[in-house]
Amino acid sequence: MFNGKALISMPFPLTPPAMTKILPDDLTHGFATRAVHAGQFADPTSGAVMTPIYQTSTYCQDGLGKHKGYEYGRTQNPTREALERNVAALEGGTHGLAFGSGLAALDAILKLFKTGDHIVSGESVYGGSMRLMKRIFEPYGLGLTFVDSRDVRNFERAITKQTRLVFCETPTNPMMFLTDLRAVGDLTTSRGILFGVDNTFATPYFQRPLSMGADIVLHSTTKYLNGHSDMVGGMLVTSRDDVAERLGFIQNASGAVPGPMDCFLALRGTKTLPLRMQRHDANGRRIADWLTTHKRVKKLYYPGLTSHPQHELAKTQMSGFGGMVSFDTGDVALAQRILERLKIFQLAESLGGVESLVGHPASMTHAAVPKEIRDDMGLTDSLIRLSCGIEDVEDLIEDLDQAMG
Hints:
five-stranded mixed sheet, Aspartate Aminotransferase, domain 1, Aspartate Aminotransferase, domain 2, seven-stranded mixed sheet, alpha/beta, globular, 14 helices
């Protein structure tokens, strides 16, 4: 288990698979070049430019103890390793670990700790993240405190002698709250506490938490990294060898790994991440600007707006603001009519795909969050969340206009 930032002795042998590290040149190129090439090489058998889908559960061995670095599909897979190296390079980390979902990745982080350890988390996290922490790990004796992550002093006040991890999501889903990553990074470093950040909304194209003091970065690769709504997966990135070793052991021992086809799809997606994020960002800004003038909008949440209370912080730690926009109509019946009248925006769970989606957080993504916590966050039953895709923005605005009219 982890005692602060030091790896202490394990009650069983630590024999993880060989850790997947990025290649030597992966951090020397620009972001777009890394997105296309980092962590990959031509297939040694055929010369295939695209990483093959190694659809196998096991590997032939030449003799006892004589293999080519691969023994069993849960432990190692070349397609998965290429994805792990690629995303690690995009985040500026040295180790990547892929999982079967974003929640499986968070589950691995939580398994770093033991009964009696304490975690401080932002309260405005994805509903599934809160459910996992409170409904699964808290009954096993893991201490949890949820705080408003907009003020670093809330984290500082919540830290105890048993605190082993500070965790946050920024921007948050769906309220678009921001956490000052440098301030929290300084705090956790000074206290010897691990710092984990869910970077799903911003992606490494717009924000890189490891450079601001985070120890572990989490992604739901289902979302922007894949970008095509055709797979489910998760990813952890770190530059700490001790953390990577322990997470690698958990990844193999728990077995919540993605299949090679899902890894191939996510790896295909990261190649176009820079282009897609530029369009998501451009569409998000235009739509947010348009919503500022609409009579149906009572509250609007988008960090790219100067009216956002944390806009200045967003400018210092993000290079773009992305395509996620939330707004409150103040009227539940009106929100339902809008959700059901949209045509291009599709009513569906998830986000980050090339297609525009619309969701109702109170009954969808955050239904598992206790109502009192939703109320504290301002997450009302009349809140609507938009995932602005890469379509022509004029068509998206026209669709919103006809649904809200």
